[in-house]
Amino acid sequence: MSARRSLVWLGLTPEPEQELPAAVAALRARADGRPPSPLVVAERQRVERLVLGGTQRGWLRYLGEVTELVVEAATESRTADPRAALLAGEVVLDHHRMLIGLPGAGYQRTAAQRRELERALARLRSRLPLGHSELRSAL
Prior knowledge:
Blueprint: H1 14-29, H2 37-53, H3 56-75, H4 83-98, H5 106-109, H6 111-127, H7 132-138
Helix pairs in contact: 1-2, 1-4, 3-4, 3-6, 4-6
């Protein structure tokens, strides 16, 4: 690892590392409720590789993919249970908002994603019968 490589972005990854694998696996599988375990394991391994050996740019590309999945789920009527998309969207939006405190252009680079996520989350919340406190325990 280069001494010039900035690692400050890693301080923002604990919640996404924990919360995203199951939610993203559910979105990728278009699963209602808990996704198949092999998909969760594969997603967790991908996140682990990005965090342990990747760069902030690579991590933000991954979160961009997650944003696309959330926006797609919010615009499709096929999503009977929007909990996975809502959870993933909230985690990524929180992450992107915290980028304002880090050096570099990450916050500016994610401005469009923040706007997309805010709109998608509003649509998803309108379809969710559960309270927010029940959301994380549902997946």
